[in-house]
Amino acid sequence: GAVVSQHPSWVICKSGTSVKIECRSLDFQATTMFWYRQFPKQSLMLMATSNEGSKATYEQGVEKDKFLINHASLTLSTLTVTSAHPEDSSFYICSAIYRGNTGELFFGEGSRLTVL
Amino acid sequence: GENVEQHPSTLSVQEGDSAVIKCTYSDSASNYFPWYKQELGKRPQLIIDIRSNVGEKKDQRIAVTLNKTAKHFSLHITETQPEDSAVYFCAASRGGTGNQFYFGTGTSLTVIP
């Protein structure tokens, strides 16, 4: 299957700082990437859809000014958690659609954010 | 939008027995149904998928069935092994680049040796 790489895997930051998470499609181009948030023992909650060259589409209830998404190229999308607070601590996972219209979805390794 | 429901939320089986997880969806336009396995602290891994033009698909000990009329699909794991223990998610999508995937709430499967 396709490879999606996410970095960093773990990050600890102080409250009020910003954290950037990168998501890369290593062996294919992804016009669309998705960002999910996952709480312990819960399902994947879609935060936003990241489209290359255009603004991200955010799900209802997700603050676009707090979770900045940039999809600058066909292989890279970034999620920046701005002015992080302890309640932002979570597991963030990106994913990308592979093989164009056949639409298989592959996930990055995930990034565990802990805000102190 | 699409609504995917998944049952059961937890499932325990003896090693060697079969496990069945069921999902229903609401959007008749959904045509792609993947299943993911997620081990603790790791990424979800695609284990099998099925498209709406097929009623059943099998890959070794794993099979998926789809009933388009009833809008439900199921994951079947036979001869379960301890390493099958994980959380399993079903999903539904209209397919194609850019179309969203809607996930079920997950099933925590425990295979008891």
- Proportion of residues in β-strands of chain A: over 45%
Catalogue the unreliable spans of chain B: none
Q: What kind of sheet is the major sheet of chain A? A: 7 strands, mixed
Most residues in contact, chain pair and counts: A-B, 27 and 27 residues
The percentage helix of chain B is under 10%
C-alpha-based Rg of chain A, rounded: 13 Å
What is the oligomeric state here?
Answer: heterodimer
Give the proportion of residues in helices of chain A.
Answer: under 10%
**Could you report the average pLDDT of chain A, rounded to the nearest whole number?**
91
The mean pLDDT of chain B is 94
Distance between the termini of chain A: 36 Å
Biggest sheet descriptor of chain B: 6 strands, mixed
What is the beta-strand fraction of chain B? over 45%
What is the CA-CA span between the terminal residues of chain B?
41 Å
The count of DSSP E runs of length 2 or more, i.e. the number of strands of chain B, is 11
What is the radius of gyration of chain B computed over CA atoms, rounded to a whole number of angstroms? 13 Å
Shape of chain A: globular
Summarize the structure.
Chain A has 116 residues and is mostly beta strands. Helix content of chain A is 0%, strand content 54%. At the A-B interface, strand 5, strand 9 and strand 10 of A face strand 4, strand 5, strand 9 and strand 10 of B.
Overview of this structure, please?
The complex is a heterodimer of chains A (116) and B (113). With 116 residues, chain A is mostly beta strands. Chain A is built from no helices and eleven strands. Chain B is mainly beta and 113 residues long. In chain B, a hairpin with a 2-residue loop joins strand 6 and strand 7 (62-67). The radius of gyration of chain B is 13 Å and the shape is globular. Chains A and B meet through strand 5, strand 9 and strand 10 of A and strand 4, strand 5, strand 9 and strand 10 of B.
